[in-house]
Amino acid sequence: MANRYQNRIELLQGTLDLLILQTLRWGPQHGYGISQAIRLNSGDILQVDTGSLYPALHRLERQKWIAADWKLSENKQRVRVYRLTAAGKKRLLSERSRWAQLSDAIAGVLEPAKKESEA
């Protein structure tokens, strides 16, 4: 039972990682901006709370898929701005490919008749 729960957490983390990497593909951003971009681009369906976002950002930084620098925001506050690294761009391509395979596999289970009619 514990293993199944652990796998679920990893899937969620992997999905969040993919969303963060994709968001940073559009340009450097601070944490709040990343969460807003995910929310807005998902039509307000996906909401990432700070309790999930910042551990994910730190994990991605440890993996060297993103890098961060301190900058001054428009209202003169220090913010950490994250950007995608070359390794992160490679990882994003890989994750997008895996996501497409997963989406196709799930669609095949949800709509098997469609798959059969295409064959």
Domain count, please report it.
1
In one word, what is the shape? Answer: elongated
How many individual β-strands? 3
Strand content: 5-15%
* Terminal-residue CA separation: 38 Å
Description:
- The chain is of the alpha+beta class.
- The chain has a single domain, classed as Winged helix-like DNA-binding domain superfamily/Winged helix DNA-binding domain (Arc Repressor Mutant, subunit A), CATH 1.10.10.
- The chain has helices at residues 2-25, 31-41, 50-62, 86-110, 112-118, and strands at residues 29-30, 66-72, 78-84.
- Strands 1-3-2 form a 3-stranded antiparallel β-sheet.
- A hairpin with a 5-residue loop joins β2 (66-72) and β3.
- α4 (86-110) crosses α5.
- The model is unreliable at 7-11 (pLDDT under 50).
Q: What characteristics describe this protein?
A:
3 strands; 5 helices; Arc Repressor Mutant, subunit A; alpha+beta; elongated; 67% helix
Characterize this entry briefly.
This protein has helices at 2-25, 31-41, 50-62, 86-110, 112-118; strands at residues 29-30, 66-72, 78-84. Helix 1 packs across helix 2, helix 1 packs across helix 3 (50-62) and helix 4 crosses helix 5 (112-118).
